[in-house]
Amino acid sequence: MQKAKAYSAASATSPLASSVIERRDPTANDVQIEILYCGVCHSDLHTVRNEWEAAMATIYPCVPGHEIVGRVTKVGSGVQNFKVGDLAAVGCMVDSDGACPACQDGLEQFCPGMVLTYNSPDKHTGGVTYGGYSDSIVVDEHFVLRVPENLDLAGAAPLLCAGITTYSPMRHWGVTKGKKVGVVGLGGLGHMGVKFAHALGAHTVVFTTSPSKTEDALRLGADEVVISRDANEMQKHAGSFDFILDAVAAEHDLNTYLNLLRRDGNLTLVGAPEKPLPVSAFGLIMGRRSLSGSLIGGIAETQEMLDFCGEHNITSDVEVIPIQKINEAYERMLKSDVKYRFSIDMASLKAE
Ligand code: NAP
Ligand code: ZN
Question: Across residues 301-319, what is the average pLDDT?
Answer without folding.
Answer: 98
